[in-house]
Amino acid sequence: MLATYICVTLVTLILMCVYIISVLSDNLYSDRTTRLFAKANIISMTAANVWDSEDENVMYQRFVDIMERSLAGTSIRGVVTNTSYTVLYDSNNEADMVGRVFMRDVLKRAVDGEQAESMFESDSGKTVTVSVPVERNGVIVGGVYLAENVSSISDTIDTIKTSLIIFSALIILIVAMMSIGISYIIMQPMADFIEVAHAISKGDFSKRASVKGTSEMAQMGKALNYMCDELNALDEKRKNFVSDVSHELKTPMAGIKLLCDSLIEAEDPGMDTIREFLGDMSEEIDRLTRLINRLLTLSRLDAGAGLNVSNVDITMLVGAVIRSLKQFSAEKNISIDLDIKMGQEREVTADYDKLYEAVYNVLDNAIKYTPENGAVHVRTTRDNGMCIIEIEDNGPGIPDDEKTKIFDRFYRLDDSRARDTGGTGLGLAISKEAVQLHGGTVEVKDAPEGGSIFRISIPFAAAEPV
Ligand SMILES: Nc1ncnc2c1ncn2[C@@H]1O[C@H](COP(=O)(O)OP(=O)(O)OP(=O)(O)O)[C@@H](O)[C@H]1O
Ligand SMILES: [Mg+2]
User: Fold this and answer.
1) Which residues contact 192 (CB under 8 A, 6 or more apart)?
2) 14/133 same-domain check
């Protein structure tokens, strides 16, 4: 990250410096060239006025006057030649060029009628040269050549270059320091997250990321910690479930083993004893079978096999559940009545078998836990667009602090009593799971005259029919 920041900044700075230097040097050199052309043109016009090809000495004196006026206070070298490039005047006396041929490319182009410029580099630095023709009565009679050393421009550009390099170095330093700071702020929690993720992958859900402030990183840390909490709770549940299952399976197995041992050890047991023992064993096997069936139902619901939905008439479904438990309620002389208060719209889109199982388990409990001669009322209503099935009994009721726990797997209010009644403690867990799959809820509350009311709510369109 640090390297990326520095690279991006470096490339940007280099491009910026190259651009600044090139624009600046172009401007400075073209400004100097323009000024030289202006002077050369003035000299050319003035020289044309005094041009006298008859007497070169007179003309020389005139050029001296013009040049001294035009070039006073500058370091510009001025040369005037005729069209054969013979020097008529040279401001550089030391060169002693008067009367000699002075051949330069720019001068040649000027004599050909063009305004020309060029630049060359020597030991004394860069020199800009310009040349313009001298025209008299529309005829080119010579050329003016001006040359100026512009090393001061190079010096200025060099100074600016140095300043830019220092400025860029400072910026790189600041960017590097800021990048180190930012990457520390980002990477520190990141390292923490990676550590937690490694722990999770090894099955350790106890580690938590440190969360500081409200930044995006902190939000991410919170989400990770929440995930750890959930995984931990799930792991805990799984472990408890496995130990509960083993425990529940052990009890009937131990019963069967005891009955077998007793039979083996008994000396010459009579046919009646054998029959009695085998009957008890059969009961234990029934209990095992019921438990295994319940576990299979739960695991199918857990696997999220999906809903096999159809249009289900809810009153028909509830009626079928009541009919199937009629004999059980009759044995205890418990009356069951059905009150339908839901108008004409009685169909829900639901999985018939799963919903049947959910209602069955609740009604089975109502009969099972209500003492003999009790009464169970079943109502179907609608509330806020939800289909409601209420099952009210006048049994012992459920204490407030147990009202949510009874929906947990293997939870029984009075463990030994419930086990004697053949309860597995899975009935309500299955109901809850099945109803939740339909997007509904199951709750329990106290009935006004003692006992409990179980309320199943499911949306009318729990799912799209397939
Ligand atoms: N209507 C009720 N009145 C009083 N207690 C109830 C009622 N319904 C459920 N319970 C209590 O809630 C516990 C859990 O019920 P659940 O149906 O899950 O298990 P179970 O009835 O013991 O076993 P199973 O349903 O497998 O036969 C029961 O053991 C019982 O103690
Ligand atoms: Mg039950």
Assistant:
1) 209, 210, 221
2) yes
One domain for residues 297 and 313:
no
Residues 19 and 70 in one domain: yes
Which are the contacts of 149, defined by CB distance < 8 A and separation ≥ 6? Answer: 75, 124, 125, 126, 127
Closest residue by CA, ligand 1 atom 7: 365
Mean pLDDT of the 149-168 span: 89
Q: For the chain, report the end-to-end CA distance as a whole number of angstroms.
A: 52
Whether 395 contacts 421, CB under 8 Å? no
pLDDT at 415: 62
Query: Is the CB of 428 inside a 6 Å radius of any atom of ligand 1?
Result: yes
User: How many other C-beta atoms can be found within 10 angstroms of the C-beta atom of residue 257?
Assistant: 13
Q: Is the minimum distance from the CB of 392 to ligand 1 under 6 angstroms?
A: no
Most ligand 1 atoms within 8 A of CB, residue of 291, 363, 406 to mutate? 406
pLDDT digits (tens, 9 = 90+) for 130-150: 999 999 888 999 999 999 998
Q: Yes or no: say if 336 and 327 are a contact pair by the CB < 8 Å rule.
A: no
Q: Are residues 320 and 277 in the same domain?
A: no
Residue to mutate (ligand 1; options 369, 431, 432, 444; most atoms within 8 A of CB): 369
The CA-based angle 458-464-466, given to 5 degrees, is: 125
Q: Looking at the CA of 293, which ligand is closest?
A: 1
- In degrees rounded to 5, what are phi and psi of residue 390? -115, 135
Domain count, the chain: 3
Tell me the pLDDT tens digit for each residue of 211-257: 877 778 888 889 999 999 999 998 888 888 888 889 888 988 999 99
Structure token pair of residue 65: 């006057």
**Residue 408 Cα to chain centre, angstroms:** 37
Report yes or no on whether pTM surpasses 0.85.
no
Q: Residue 391: nearest ligand to its CA? A: 1
> Is a pLDDT exceeding 80 seen at residue 56?
no
383: number of CA atoms within 13 Å, CB side? 12
Angle at which helices 216-265 and 271-302 cross, to 10° = 170
Residue 465 has pLDDT above 50, yes or no: no
pLDDT of residue 417: 53
Measured from the CB, is residue 376 less than 6 Å from ligand 1?
no
User: Closest by alpha carbon to 465, among 387, 346, 352, 349?
Assistant: 349
Which residues span the domain enclosing 427? 307-459
